[in-house]
Amino acid sequence: MRSDTGTLPTLEMRAAMKHAVVGDDGRVKINGKGEDPTVEQLEVQSAREFAMEDALFCSSGTMANIISILTTVKRGEFVALDKNSHINLSENSIFTSEFFGRKALYIETDSYGMPDISSLEKLLTCNDVKLLCLENSAAYYGGTCLSAAKIEEICRVAQEFNVPIHIDGARIFNASTFLKEPVAELVYHADSVMFCLSKGLGAPIGSVLCGSKKFIAEARKVRKALGGNMRQSGVVAAAGIVALNDKHHLRNDHNHAKFLVDMITHNPLIFIDKFSVQTNIVKVNVANAGILAHEVEKGLKSHGLLVKSLGPTSLRLVLHKEITKEQIKRAAIILNSYFEELDGQ
Ligand SMILES: *Cc1c(COP(=O)(O)O)cnc(C)c1O
């Protein structure tokens, strides 16, 4: 339960990979697309689903986010984002002088990662911000979701200041499933979005960056500059297409997250805010455990349960389509007995 990156390619994905028609995606055709027809198919299908003009297949979500920022923001210029966003916490090369040298400004959010509108207005009034990044669902907060209405409210403010918006939608299909709003509505007011094929969707490799034709043409140059052009990448894009065509299991993953919460017995050492359990992530507060989260992580590992610590006081347990109800019951038993024992010490 460390991550939804743990899924393995299905037989259908393997078959699609085996039969994929491929070409050199690093060579650009007259229409601006690479020469690999399967990658092109994935990009066209992605752009259509997000109602954006064009799309670019990237090797990872990190690369797609970095490409998006590099395409829009110059060295030394400001990007506004949440301090607890994946881009800030795990893609920090974008903000270091050794690498990309963009500057971060932090937006204020509530305890579910929802940006505060009036402080955003103030931040954009006082600074020359070149890009605003949002994350949906918000991984650090336990997979909480920004609704289309909330995103529109945020985007209206950004647009007043002519600030474009990039959405880190690594798990945007989870958000879409929870909110019952199509992804196209969730990105309607944004300029670009990145989504991961290799998280809950279950593909082995890859993410897609979507935006305007002009933006994607620039992004393609940045991808090349980063060494991100791949050759017969249709082999992996084929699995991505299968993943994109079959997302019905996400609802089940969300139900499983709730089931896990129900199976965890009350213990004074831990706290789960049920409101935050919206998608496939369960965030457990262990501030009262008397030991640090990474020590709890180690302890649970020795009992056979893999989880991930988020900072010193939280753990996250992530559900995905290969985790069964039986496994969830076992996980809860391990968790419950671990904390009962810890409480008894
Ligand atoms: C996983 C993740 C990414 C990066 O994706 P990789 O493919 O692992 O590089 C970006 N943002 C969020 C919110 C993520 O969860």
Explained architecture:
The protein is an alpha/beta fold and 345 residues long. Helix content is 42%, strand content 14%. It has 13 helices and ten strands. It has a seven-stranded mixed β-sheet with strand order 1-7-6-5-4-2-3, with helices on both faces. Helix 6 (148-160) links the parallel strand 4 (129-135) and strand 5 (165-169). Helix 1 (11-19) crosses helix 10 (234-245), helix 2 (37-49) runs parallel beside helix 10 and helix 11 (249-263) runs parallel beside helix 13. It is globular, with a radius of gyration of 20 Å. The two termini are 26 Å apart. The mean pLDDT is 97. Pyridoxal-5'-phosphate (PLP) is lined by residues 60-62, 65, 86, 135, 139, 168, 170, 196, 198-199, 207.
Quick summary of this structure?
The chain is an alpha/beta fold and 345 residues long. The protein has 13 helices and 10 strands.
Mean pLDDT metric: 97
- Compute the gyration radius: what is it? 20 Å
Q: How helical, in percent, are the residues?
A: 40-55%
Rounded to the nearest angstrom, the distance between the terminal CA atoms is 26 Å
Ligands present: pyridoxal-5'-phosphate
Question: Count of DSSP E strands?
Answer: 10
Q: Segments where pLDDT lies below 50 for 5+ residues? A: none
Contiguous helical run count: 13
What structural category do the secondary elements indicate? alpha/beta
Beta-strand fraction estimate: 5-15%
Report the sheet with the most strands, covering strand number, pairing sense and barrel closure: 7 strands, mixed
| Spatial strand sequence of the major β-sheet | 1-7-6-5-4-2-3
